[in-house]
């Protein structure tokens, strides 16, 4: 399904991997971390191909959606097991976050709710001593307070020990301020690989009477629209024509990252996820 | 865990039921729909107690987190089954939404992803002919596009056939514009039952040098704070003191519903969810 993906992942950067349900985000994570092979294309880290490259792979950690731990193992035992596998794990951070999130170390893995499974996994992901951390839906099942706590902990951890994070999530607006670079995955390809700032600068909502909006946006890259009576909003991704005068009846504003993503990907053929 | 809840649910109103993970939102839904009994307190609909009141209960539909359908039944068969159970189901709406969400009617229930299970259940919830619809985490697993489609479909359906919706979700900011009335569930009690508008009017961020902010907010209902160097934000819920002058160094602004909720409930004892 995924092929011909070309990505070079840079050090000390926070990336957002955005894609519809079923677009292949988890598959891409598994390719990057060498769990499944890719037929064509190449993923490099700091310019080095990752395929079967142990030196690079040892610097990577993937927090995946799957549940990897023995179901009857307790939270505290899972931490100990992980600390044994990953040298240099920050046990003080594990302890602080465990307390802040209210995670009980005596609970068995299979007794944790979806939210607390995510919490356990994200605590480990933030505490292992690696240079590249991949987070697949880290906030699944978390309430608003816990999500805020996670975003704060991530930024705090990044400030103390800069490294690369790649975050995949459906809560796009909530991570818009965290991520420096956006990858949009569509139909098996990375269709956008751009800094968050540049991407936001290219997204516009053109609002006004239908006729005027349609005339003004003719020839522009219109990615979506809303209609309310005769009021029309055309969403544009790309440059506006500098020498084309904006009619008085029409207003131009920027849109947020989630709105931009929704419009960019709404034409995608809907498929049942797997 | 829940007791002494007193609620009267009004016709043609969209409510938001907000609570931390484990606060008991699903339990409350099960009490309201008479699936489990409540030890103390009373829930009424249009003033009528619902306990064992078939006439009222027949006008209620609950979309729950549980998976109620035979695992090998196909989506189309589930629709047929439901149409048989609930007279007057809007089959045209079922068909339109099925197409818009890209749900395949031939897929078996156990082959649907979390997102598409939610989609199947919310299509049914929007299409049954009842006066009170309870939606427990309707957007679980949905991507941003599907969430937007759901919010539009809900408003559209409400406009065509006004009725009551009660929505429980962790994506508070996304439903802030949909809901007219907010219930906050904390420690087994409804601690806030207020119109969204009034609630938002009572939420403030007081920002400035720590000393000035602390002095100005003394005696106010401070529900949370952020600190960055000497810059302090105190979050207040309630009235400001009208005759107390706001220092020039201090700025006062309103906060959004999610921020308000996070601060109101952050002191709650964190517990492992069940």
UniProtKB/TrEMBL annotation, chains A, B:
InterPro entries: AAA+_ATPase, ABC_transporter-like_ATP-bd, P-loop_NTPase
Signal peptide: none
GO molecular function, one term: ATP hydrolysis activity
Annotated keywords: ATP-binding, Nucleotide-binding
Residues annotated as domain ABC transporter: 1-212
PANTHER family assigned: ABC TRANSPORTER, ATP-BINDING PROTEIN, SKFA PEPTIDE EXPORT ATP-BINDING PROTEIN SKFE
Name of the protein this chain belongs to: ABC transporter, ATP-binding protein
Origin species: Secundilactobacillus odoratitofui DSM 19909 = JCM 15043
